[in-house]
Amino acid sequence: MRRFFTRIFDALSSTWLSIVVLSFLLLLTVVGTLEQTRTSLYEVQRRYFESSFVVHDLGGIPVPLPGVYLLLILLAINLVCGGILRIRKDSTTWGVIIAHVGILVMLGGSMVEYRWSEKGHLSLAEGSEAAEFTSYYEWEIAIAEARDRGPVTELVITGDRFMQLAKGKTARFTSPDIPFDLVVQRVFPNCEPKPAESGGSPGVDGIALVEMAPEKEAEADVAGAYVEVRPKSGGAAIPGLLWALERFPMSVNVDGKRWTIGLSHRRWQLPFSVRLEDFRQQLHPGTGMAKAFESDVTKTRDGIAQKVKISMNQPLRESGYTLYQSGFQQPSTRGGKWRSTFSVVKNPADQVPLYSCIVITAGLLLHFAQKLLRHMRTQKTMWRRA
Amino acid sequence: MLKPSPILTAALLSFAVCGCGKDGDAVPIDGKRVLVAPRPEQRMAAGTKMRFSGPSMDSGGGSAQAAMPTLAWDLPAGWMELAPTQMRTGNFSVPAFPGLECTITILPGGGGGLAANLNRWRKQMGLPALTEADIAALPRVKLLGADAASIVMDGTYSGGQEGASPGFTMAAVVLDRPGAAIFVKMVGPTAAVRAEIGHFRALCASLRDTSATGPAAGGADTGSMKWTAPAGWTQGPAKQMRVVTFVPKDAPGVECYVTVLSGTGGGLTANLNRWRDQFGLPPLTAEEIAALPTLPVLGRPARMIEIDGGKSGLFGLVCELGTQTVFVKMTGPMESLRAERERFIAFCKSLS
Amino acid sequence: MKKLSFALVALLTAFSAPAEENHEHKHTPAPPRTHARWSPAMIDLFARLPIQEGGRVKPLSTFANFTLLALNGRRGCTTSAGVRLEPTEWLMDCFFYTEEAITYPCFLIQDAQVLDDLGLEHEGKLRRDRYSYADLEPARAKLFELGQKYDHIDAKERNPVQGQVVNLAHNVMLFERVAGFLTVFESTPTGADSAAIAAVFGKDGRPALADLLKRAAELRPFFGSASDDPHGTAAAGGKADPAFLAWAREFAGNSGGIALIPPADSAPALASWLTPGSIAEEALLHGTPMPDQIEALADLEAMYRLRDDRAAFASRAESFRKRVVAAAERRGEYAKVPLEVAFYRAQFFYYAQILFVLGFLLAAFSWIKPMRILPRLTAGSVGVATLLLIAGITMRCIIRGRPPVSTLYESILFTTGVAVISSMIAEYLNRQGIAMTLATVLGAAGMFLADRYEMQEKIDTMPSLVAVLDTNFWLASHVTTVTIGYGAGLLAGAIGHVTILGRLLGLKRRDETFYRTLTSMTYGILCFGLLFSVVGTVLGGIWANESWGRFWGWDPKENGALAIVLWELIVLHARFGGYIRDQGLAISAVFGGVVVAASWWGVNLLGVGLHSYGFTSGILIALLSFFAIEALVIVAGLAWGFGNRVPPDKPEGAVTPVA
Fold first, then answer.
1. I need a labelling partner for C111 at 20 to 30 A (CA). Which of A127, B56, C178, C263 fits?
2. CB contact under 8 A, A18 and C534
3. ipTM exceeding the 0.95 mark
4. pTM score of the predicted model
């Protein structure tokens, strides 16, 4: 039995495994880069770089490959077993071990980021204010009681629970806070509403959702879904359809109260609100090229307001969230307002890459400097002998 | 070397198993979010119609949409088309004159009337209002076949975000017709406007209404067109302005689609020569067009043209039905086109 | 814009002679040169004039250089009379002798098919030949129409002729902007044709533009409140003078031309410099007083009118120069201009290339006839060339105020520097002579590549940078480190070539030390390269995190850097594990060079991602040729390796000694 585990450990710590994993990583990197000319980056990322397994289409021939997620896990195991535990520990190998530790730290940081980070954007016109940001790719269904004023609690069903619904399958969502269940019957990653006759599908109230091919840029996809509201008290089921660019959410009356159900990009709340006071774009004189752009915002947290400037390469950091100046929109009419777009990120492992970089550099420098000195000493001996 | 380890394999396989939700079981909703105030869109009890109005609803729409025309135009040389916005059906700029912009706006319900709009613009240009008599005396030009008021004003433009801009000129053409008013407006530095006024006039002259109107008397109803798809042709994704799109499976790069335009859709000659021009070929004379082969489509002789542009080409069919015109177009690499020629002809003939 | 071209056309018709029957070229023959050539002192004065272009203040000579390069494909222009003009001289002719400049054949057309498309004759001309503005003008409208049409086609889909039409349209617009912008001085209204001028200057008044502008306040009432609308809407009364209005709107609204005149001292830091048109606009239409600028304009106009009286011209030119330079200095915008003129005059990279080639010839000669002095001469040649290269790079840094690598062009210079310096260090450590020879080869190749790239892109190699690159810290750390990694990777590949080709050709068969040294050099440089590539890639991620909030986005350029790191790791681990030895290392290093080239150049051609610089078919062809050659070398190396296998004698996991 002990021999069995020794052999497993030998395999996991072998240089051969390092080479295989690194080679597959290289292959996936090349394939994933070329694939981006055909498919959106978001799709490529999902299929090749965040998965354990991918089937690549090589001119019609399906080629199964391990995904980068799996490869990085194997790499981490190999680093620990071979690069840290099994490796000879003497003055010649400390540099390498330190470098390996640095890489492990970096891999750990990226795992944290993958699981626990929130990324989205916030777009504000001059003079407007917001306290939440929106995902570029993820979706959500939000159910809320319709009110004119006052606090509202939204029930949120995140996209991972319904977007991958296979055709023909449905998903039923329930909550003690609402007098009905929501059944999601059919989901379209990218679609548009059309009058029911032309679509071919039955539709709701004469409107049907027509599926479209995914856009080259996944942020441009507009999702839609056929849903059904089933009152718990036994009334008739109300069919409906949701579309991400609808002007208003679906509105239903159940048990005497009005509820709204809307499909949109996933939103996260910020523990502070941001108001855009002014956006400035500096152009290189005599050209249309942007030299710099920056936004003056007022950040209000717990009632305390603070004026901050956000510009390219100088983000705003507050309460674990970071706001980056990502882009802007010119007004489309004369007299219109400028819009400033911020990229919002919550990443607990934000500074990990910097620390790991320092560790890796130190380790590699140590190792290669040692090697160089040894080489020079050997050369001197050779010349003296000659 | 290394023998594949069973434990490793099992571990790897376990990754392949993904958690799929079982059909029908109720999943509890656990996401919650408290908002300080309801979202504006949540305050409306909106019915389906209110939730889903927009341009994608127009194609194949009923008579309720007839008042909002869909416009087409010929882009003048040196002009660039920008993305349309909520207010601007046509949105243009001229790269040679950065301060210049031209827009086409359709306002349903008349938008307030001719006088109100003209004087609003006069105010924007820092000029006094015009009296009814002045407005009646304005020259008229033809826009979409009707008389439209035309005006050119010089002044200090204050409709922009930079505040007052002196040395500006606004040229506008306003068509006030029941159901919708159409404005074509160009604003910019005076030198620029003067330089481009010819192109502006040409743009107005080229404006045409291409909305697919409902069933009209005496014409074939193409809202319920039928066809037989040839072997090996798969239906492609639905697209704006097209009745149907086909993609032959064995012919890479080839696409065939059907569009219907009201009226003459520009006319047989204009369209055939426009297609020829796209491939850098000179226009055809009237005799050459009359010599083109015809196919019986929808009960009429429709002209068919085969354009060989060298590497790629176009097969086109124009079927004039009087109140509407049906176009069938197939484009792609020349070799693949030739291979699909018979199927194209069969498809056209199968339209009914 | 239209006004300028009409001016040019007017000049054309005024000055063109009827085509002679027996003239070989059908273009309008040049009128006999009516003016003397400019004196070197005058050319130097103009070369040093500051202008603002492309977002930065630069010397007129830089602008002339790159404009002529873009139009003509050469750094000079030969008139049809056989006179060879350097760029600044050509530009001066365009300014002051426009009627002749339009007959200089300064438009390079690669394929006469373009002229066929435009409907122009080209009998008697070669397929690839040069044409003058006068030759092209008849088809101007068609050129712009076609240019606009083809511009909408995606660059990858365009055929070469369409691409050339688009280029030609841009070049013609550029020429129109540059040439003849001073001819506006001819069109100032006189008292005879304008009531406004008559009122202020008298019926016979023929004011210079500067005088007109100085009295702008008196002329403003003549704008009136009328709108001379051809549709005849209600025109209020008043003193409106249509001729003057028309001229004012045409000229004042037109800000085309060269921004030669600095704005007021009080204008903000990034304010645009002024052209004659914009000065007129400010003075006439906005009523802004601009005494200094109008004086400079007066000098310019006097220069234009006195162009044939060279003595008077020289004195006005000097006055203009003094005024403009003083204004620029007050704004702190002149400091780097003389330095830039000196930089381009010194031609550092040209001389470096010559010295590298000389070094190579010396080294090659020493293979045939070894002499003790030759290695020293080679080293000397390489040393001086490297110093020139470093001097050039440093001067560029000073002029731009930026770290050494901020554009693709500069990455070529820096990579070459890294490769050459690393070779020299390797030579010092190993003393085999081969590293020094490699330094000459890589140095010459790098300088040649830089020159060809500049000739192909034809734009200012010191452009303004986009917002995200506006940070010196990250440019200095990330970009420099990654570029050092490129240099090391390519050098290792070059040494690999020597190993493979040496073995194949049976060079130094008895001398195992030679090949052992090569192997250890390859290994050492790979390690060095790995260090910089890893650090550079991680720094890039940190920069992206600071700017955009995401450390790694799988962007093609990022993936390229990662590929280099992964490959170098694979090679080093394979050597550690004993899976490859000398020949395997050499082959792997050559492949590493391919990975570096693909990452450096190839990713830009894909057209996706943040680093896409646009598709250039020239680069694609060069890159593919490089890949093909490297593939042959690798196959040859493998063939030799499998035919000459040494039985494995090291257990797995041992560290292979380096010596």
1. C178
2. no
3. no
4. 0.72
